[in-house]
Design brief:
The protein is of the alpha/beta class. The protein contains 8 helices and 7 strands, in the order αβαβαβαβαβαβααβ. Strands 3-2-1-4-5-6-7 form a 7-stranded parallel beta sheet, with helices on both faces.
């Protein structure tokens, strides 16, 4: 990519108000760092107040942290209200917070499944619902939800996680048709194996796996999100699947 292209992409995010959930680690943190470079106005949400505070100090600029647990009924409304109070609008919602549970259904823990559905599905629905009022009123906005390659097929070693991401896919496709008349775009970003904490990958293991083509960096996913939300208004990226080179699923 040449310098002109990089400048053009950055300009499309400058001063846009971007809400990122799950921002304290992994993909969310990579998005926060990249979008801060692009001069976006950031509202970062996550459960860890200490991690969010450290990230805000690192990024500087117009960055706000809102710590809380989005599985709690009122937290999504509180998050979006904080964005509106500070910046008067919401241009991008990246609904990224999620957890991972794998394993046998016969031997699994239904309590863990309930927590996964609360986080990966219900909390996503809530935060999207909270943001839609502002986006419909301003007749513009981008909503991108972190899905997974597991949302495009049922993977046998993670059937409950796959089910949660299939729910996300159905939600994205139905919602998109409901809100397109208001200038609101809705899409899913579906990575394969991402080399971060969710997958139990330490910092020293990332580059060897990248070289082997067995995983992608969180930063790679952040760049894919930037591509999605920086398209001109007449273009919608409905689904973007990003896989490591050697992943064949």
């Amino acid at each position: 990519m040449d310098e002109t292209d990089e400048t053009d992409r950055g300009a499309s995010l400058r001063d846009r108000v971007v809400v990122v959930t799950g921002a304290s680690s992994g993909i969310g943190r990579a998005v926060a760092r990249l979008f801060a470079q692009r001069r976006a106005r950031l509202v970062l949400a996550g459960r860890s107040e200490s991690r969010l505070s450290a990230l805000v100090r690192e990024l500087g600029g117009e960055t706000v942290a809102v710590s809380g647990d989005l599985t709690e009924p009122d937290e999504a409304d509180r998050l979006i209200a904080a964005a509106i109070e500070r910046f008067s609008r919401v241009d991008v919602l990246f609904a990224n917070a999620g957890i991972y549970v794998s394993g046998s259904v016969a031997e699994g823990d239904p309590g863990a499944w309930e927590q996964l559905i609360d986080t990966n599905v219900t909390a996503v629905f809530r935060v999207v619902h909270a943001a839609l009022g502002a986006m419909i009123a301003q007749r513009s906005g981008d909503i991108v939800i972190t899905s997974s390659v597991s949302g495009h097929q049922a993977i046998p070693w993670e059937p409950v996680y796959s089910a949660s991401k299939h729910a996300v896919q159905a939600f994205v496709h139905g919602l998109r048709r409901q809100v397109s008349e208001y200038g609101v775009r809705v899409g899913s970003l579906a990575p394969g194996r991402v080399l971060n904490e969710l997958w139990g990958i330490g910092a020293d293991d990332i580059e060897p796996e990248v070289a082997a083509g067995t995983g992608v960096r969180s930063e790679d996913v952040a760049e894919a999100l930037e591509f999605m939300v920086s398209r001109p208004p007449h273009v919608t990226i409905r689904d973007l699947v990003i896989l490591p080179f050697s992943q064949d699923i």
